[in-house]
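Data card: per-record layout.
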Amino acid sequence: MGDSTSRRRAVRLTEEALLLLKSRLNDEWDRLNLTGRLNREARAALMEVSVGTSERILNRKGNDRSVLQDVFKQLNLEWQDSFAEPMPNPSPSEVAPAPAPFPSPRARMPLVAAGFVLPALLAIWAFTRKPQIEDPLAMQLVEEGRKAYHEGKLEKADTILEKAIYRATSHRHESALAEGIRLQGEVYAATGDLEQAVECFKKSLVLREAFKFEWAYASVLEVLGAAETRLGRYGDAEAHLLEALKGLRETNDFRGAASTLRSLGVLYAAKGDPNRARRQFDLAELEMKRNPDQNLLVDMKAQRALLASAEGDHQSALLDLRQCLAHWERLSHRRWIATTQLQIAQVSARAGRSADALAMARIAKQNYEHVGDLFGVRQCNQILR
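The structure for this 385-residue chain is written out next.
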């Protein structure tokens, strides 16, 4: 009885609907400017179904109506009941097989906790523990995206990382996928879309856990905690940063530990605890005695200057910030130049130097606009109002 019920429910796309679907897949592939061919795996990834289900749909074999509706929704196509037609006397091979068992509720908990559903293909990879396939181009795109991000070319970085993520998905390169999503989160954070950044970091954490990638897990916790600090979620931020610090120290990642201590210092400064903030900066400098990072030291000098200004010492704060600005100007790093210019404008405003504050805020805003940092632009506008 169950088999005959399945056959009666099996439907396929009409010729018109199939043409619409194929056209949207091609348009989406072109829109994303992805490299390589739109092959079976890529089509399945775009539809967020398994390769087998994708092939059944495109070859007009039997599927449940809800499967077709979900695919249209995934591709932002409006579904019409007339798009599905009954299978003409389906043979057993034309009826969609029963879906494979989904992981147990216990195994699904990390996915639910992250607040999103992984595509079917990723779930299969994660829970069947199949070895990943190395795709050099996927990792090359990730590295190109990383380079563009560190150069402050955020729009370019986002475009490259979008390609990397789809390439990694369609070619089952799991480590490239996890790292690409993490870096995309950093791009979102840089542009001020902090909520989207947090979602990316959580996705990256789930992927690393599902695929047993312990490396870089703690570093993702660190950037997640930093984003949560900027959102004012201090409890979550502190928990994630402390967990990150523990993991980084266990792996002797001294520079990573120093960066996390710096983020803890920023967190405690935001909470109004300057002494605890300075203590974290001191500890960060101790960590870096074994692996110095001049850029991180300059950033912490700026953070200390902001603490001094908050306590009324604007003169020394401005002196230190101008030294930090000179460092970033030597490196021609426009985003950090803008960040320090904004800090100078903020301190100048506190010191009652309105003309200086407005002039520096205007320059900072131009630099933020150049790199696409909308969050920085909004901060400048708060001074310029």
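Known properties of this structure: Confidence is low (pLDDT under 50) at residues 1-8, 92-121, 123-129. The beta strands are 11-13, 84-86.

See the next section for split statistics.
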